[in-house]
């Protein structure tokens, strides 16, 4: 991360190029991100979705659970833009409120997974030896788990809640990031600047935070972004099977689950939440890919 | 090579042991554990429940239960199903072939289509075909598997009526054509993610190879374009691809759970889901372990095949 910044300032200080002001690596990355059309489109879609999720109570025409018993499974109309579901609830309002929970689950569980991944990866990579060996075997075992199976069993037994889904999805998606962080740390800790820091007595925790972590920021950002998409898809799968977020709560997965008995006659009930989910994941993946390219110092 | 394989197989054993121990711990920590199916039965008296717990060995201390379970696993004994009163291995053996059929059909579909799309896209990078497939594959990767299945079902079975919407066989026909017709939609559903992902992978690894010196040499010698791809490029591009396939393939079991639920396919996914609803604990644990074995075997296969295909790698 530091390398391109230094090279850029160096280039800027060369005669003939002095007109260009030095820019930080983050500014450079942001400029590169803006150039990718798909990433920009993804950011716009995500912003729109986040805003509509945050302000769902204000912009949704109805309460998510308000029933209109005179129009059950009604087709789209001026009163109900996307029609109503089998309990007479406004589909559009549920879609907006559902986005709230789906995005919340995705973002929170990705952040928790990132936290675990950084800690485990940093410990293994910095200390090496038996710490590394133990943590790496743990990762091997976790990666061998058919996660969906275990989550389904767990939720069928302990009952599910939004926080439970967030926590357990995070518990099964930190391993790749931990491996990346560990690998980078292992090679970085041989370098002179770490050796020097250790020689002047900087404590281990500070070396990790100040000198090693900034080098893996790119990997962390990209992995967190893509994990949001993974968590949203997993939540939808679990909820679709009936063992995710509790049925009353509107999420896109729960809406798909509820639509199943009716979707052949009222296809919109299944199409709308699925499209919303696909669009969200699509946008996240575009942003993730864009970030990967933008943060890659070799570009 | 033989010693390498042996070492890796031996290394897989502690891995599976770890999975077994961890899943046992998860189950112990979960309230309403293994005996939930019986405990929830309102007509069950406390004495009867105690008797069942005793018969199942559930009243013994956790370490004893763990040791017994691992010991039985090692001998291939997965216990007895709570709801079907038959050995779990027998229950699984009944439906596993159907899932293998679905997984194999999906895998073959994904392999053929991703190679086709990937190579075609690589022949003219950033051309019309490449851009269109790239855009579509973004959708393929973003769609929830089960939702794609629902949409296929809606379009081809409900609206167009071309293909059957659910099940594996029609009771009155049941020939091979009938089976294929039933297989088409679920196989495509389970494969969509890898068609999208793998075709991008084939494209980029083919492009990598096309930039190599030996390709220029072959061109200079006058080898025709298709022959370069077939005889030189593909052989090198496929080595990393094979390992990706071997690592991804076990995930088809997860896809099978969702796909089979959508299409009422009588396989592992259905068994798992049904067992989940009645809380048939031994069957659930059996499915979990089978899934883990498949994942570990896939990773093992990836390593071994990589070594076999690439003569530069020696063990």
Structural commentary:
The complex is a heterodimer of chains A (299) and B (315). Chain A is mainly alpha-helical and 299 residues long. Chain A has 14 helices and no strands. Chain A has helices at 2-13, 25-35, 37-54, 56-59, 91-127, 129-144, 147-158, 162-171, 175-188, 192-199, 204-212, 217-241, 252-259, 268-295. The termini of chain A are close together. Residues 1-13 of chain A have low confidence and may be disordered. With 315 residues, chain B is mainly alpha-helical. Chain B folds into two domains: 2-74, no CATH class; 96-309, MetI-like fold (Orthogonal Bundle). In chain B, 77% of the residues lie in helices and 0% in strands. In chain B, helix 9 (213-221) runs antiparallel to helix 10 (225-248). Chain B starts with a helix and ends in a 6-residue tail after the last helix.
Task: Provide a quick synopsis of the model.
The complex is a heterodimer of chains A (299) and B (315). Chain A is an all-alpha fold.
Biggest interface = A-B, 42 and 48 residues
**Shape descriptor of chain B:** globular
**Number of helices in the DSSP assignment of chain B:** 13
Strand content range of chain B: under 5%
For the report, how would you describe the main beta sheet of chain A?
A: none
Poorly predicted segments of chain A: 1-13
CATH C-level of the largest domain in chain B: Mainly Alpha
């Amino acid at each position: 991360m530091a390398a391109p910044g230094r090279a850029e300032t160096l280039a800027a200080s060369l005669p003939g190029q002095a007109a260009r002001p030095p820019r930080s690596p983050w500014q450079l990355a942001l400029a590169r991100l803006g150039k990718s059309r798909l990433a920009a489109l993804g950011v716009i879609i995500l912003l729109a979705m986040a805003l509509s999720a945050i302000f769902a109570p204000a912009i949704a025409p109805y309460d998510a659970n308000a029933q209109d018993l005179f129009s059950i499974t009604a087709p789209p109309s001026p009163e109900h833009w996307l029609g109503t579901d089998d309990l007479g609830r406004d589909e559009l309002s549920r879609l907006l409120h559902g986005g709230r929970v789906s995005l919340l689950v995705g973002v929170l569980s990705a952040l928790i997974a990132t936290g675990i991944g950084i800690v485990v990866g940093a410990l293994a990579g910095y200390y090496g030896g038996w710490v590394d060996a133990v943590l790496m075997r743990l990762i091997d075992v976790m990666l061998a788990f058919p996660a969906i199976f275990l989550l389904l069993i767990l939720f069928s037994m302990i009952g599910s809640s939004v926080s439970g889904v967030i926590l357990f999805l995070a518990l099964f998606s930190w391993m790749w990031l931990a491996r990346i962080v560990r690998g980078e740390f292992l090679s970085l800790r041989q370098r002179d600047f770490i050796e020097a820091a250790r020689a002047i007595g900087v404590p281990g925790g500070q070396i990790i935070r100040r000198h090693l972590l900034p080098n893996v920021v790119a990997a962390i950002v990209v992995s967190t972004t893509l994990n949001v998409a993974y968590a949203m898809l997993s939540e939808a799968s679990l909820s679709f099977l009936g063992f995710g977020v509790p049925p009353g709560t509107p999420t896109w997965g729960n809406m798909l689950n509820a639509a199943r008995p009716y979707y052949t006659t009222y296809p919109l009930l299944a199409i709308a939440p699925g499209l919303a989910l696909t669009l969200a994941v699509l946008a996240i993946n575009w942003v993730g890919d864009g970030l990967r390219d933008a943060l890659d110092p070799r570009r | 090579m033989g010693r390498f394989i042996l070492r890796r197989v031996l290394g897989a054993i502690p891995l599976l042991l770890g999975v077994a121990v961890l899943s046992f711990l998860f189950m112990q920590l979960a309230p309403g554990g293994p005996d939930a199916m019986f405990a929830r039965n309102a007509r069950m008296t406390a004495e009867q429940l105690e008797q069942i717990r005793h018969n199942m060995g559930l009243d013994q201390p956790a370490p004893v239960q763990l040791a017994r379970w691992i010991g039985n696993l090692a001998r291939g004994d997965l216990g007895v199903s709570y709801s079907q009163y038959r050995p779990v291995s027998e229950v699984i053996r009944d439906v596993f072939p159907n899932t293998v059929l679905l997984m194999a059909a999906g895998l073959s579909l994904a392999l053929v289509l991703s190679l086709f799309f990937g190579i075609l896209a690589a022949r003219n990078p950033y051309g019309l075909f490449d851009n269109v497939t790239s855009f579509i594959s973004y959708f393929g990767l973003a769609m929830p598997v089960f939702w794609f299945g629902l949409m296929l079902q809606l379009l081809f079975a409900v609206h167009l009526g071309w293909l059957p919407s659910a099940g594996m066989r029609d009771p009155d026909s049941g020939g091979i054509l009938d089976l294929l017709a039933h297989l088409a939609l679920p196989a495509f559903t389970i494969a969509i993610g890898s068609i999208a992902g793998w075709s991008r992978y084939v494209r980029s690894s083919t492009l990598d190879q096309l930039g190599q010196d030996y390709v220029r040499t072959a061109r200079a010698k006058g080898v025709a374009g298709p022959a370069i791809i077939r005889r030189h490029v593909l052989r090198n591009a496929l080595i990393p691809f094979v390992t990706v396939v071997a690592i991804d393939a076990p995930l088809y079991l997860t896809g099978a759970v969702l796909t089979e639920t959508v299409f009422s396919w009588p396989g592992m996914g259905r068994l798992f889901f049904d067992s989940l609803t009645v809380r048939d604990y031994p069957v659930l644990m059996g499915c979990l372990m089978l899934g883990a074995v498949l994942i570990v075997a896939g990773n093992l296969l990836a390593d071994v095949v990589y070594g076999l295909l690439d003569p530069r790698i020696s063990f």
